[in-house]
Amino acid sequence: MERFDLNLLIYLDILMRERSVTKAAQKLGITQPAMSNGLKRLRVLFDDPILVRTSDGMSATERAIQLQPLVRNILSEVDTAVQPTGAFEAQVSERMYRIMVSDYAEATLVPAIVKRLRREAPGVVLDFLTPSDVTYKDVEQGKVDMAINRFDELPQSFHQKTLWRDGFSCLVNPQNALLEKYDLQSYLAANHIWVSKTGMGVGTGVNPHKDKAVQLGWVDEALAAVGHKRNISVFTRHYQMPALLALNNDLVATLPSKIAEMQAKSGDLKLVNPPFEIPPFELKMAWSPLLHHNPPHQWMRKLIAEESEKLGG
Description:
This protein is of the alpha/beta class. It has 3 domains: 7-82, Winged helix-like DNA-binding domain superfamily/Winged helix DNA-binding domain (Arc Repressor Mutant, subunit A), CATH 1.10.10.10; 90-162 and 283-310, D-Maltodextrin-Binding Protein, domain 2 (3-Layer(aba) Sandwich); 168-279, D-Maltodextrin-Binding Protein, domain 2. It has 13 helices and 12 strands. The protein has helices at residues 7-18, 21-28, 32-46, 62-82, 103-108, 110-120, 136-140, 184-189, 213-216, 218-225, 241-245, 257-266, 295-310; strands at 51-54, 57-60, 96-101, 125-129, 146-149, 159-166, 168-172, 191-195, 231-236, 251-256, 270-272, 281-287. A 5-stranded mixed beta sheet has the order 4-3-5-12-6. A 5-stranded mixed beta sheet has the order 9-8-10-7-11. A two-stranded antiparallel ribbon has the order 1-2. The two termini are 46 Å apart.
């Protein structure tokens, strides 16, 4: 360790993030030859090429991929050690938090977060981004403070916390003929409003006649599991829309229960349970190890967790 240059860990971290010697040098404010020399030293130190040129550009070796989360944790601990010891003062903070939220999380959790911040940290600025605005790399590099969504999987280096579990409910107009004899057959015979499950990356359109149930989301997956398919008349990517659309007396919206309950209260709509089982899902908060020990970030995570618990998390 006495002969080891800790700056090499910084070089490795930047190189793995940028996958480019030129871009890594620019990030660190050093010359390209200096960064190239750093890469040579890393290759000697770990007896591994670290980055190799392929048809897709510079690609990381298996050894480098294994080292990346370890190195980030080390650098995060070092960053914590040199941080000022004073507590984070939320009341006078003007920090901006960039938070990726699904439309579902924005409609249920965000109003509670904003209300509390106006009281406890009025100078804090919030920038809420949609999943299509953000990539996992953005979160991993700390460009986005945290992501709040339902995730099928997350990079192993991410920290995460489950905020709550939610089931599903149906919103219908009280005059909808479906309610005269509400069962699976009448549900299948009705016309439905589809609301997207929102994942990371750029969204695309769907085709109910060609797309598989797994591509259509939770509700259609559950129906397919029992050998059925519903008639979808309207597709939307916004959880605020179904309450307005379900006012039509021939449409049904099947939504996560928290938002369905909110919309039923604000509109003249009836709330009923789906006539088949839909597995519940988890709303999670995920963030980069680079920010895990950052005091302002810790404060915001705690606030979000507390507000989630109040909402039934």
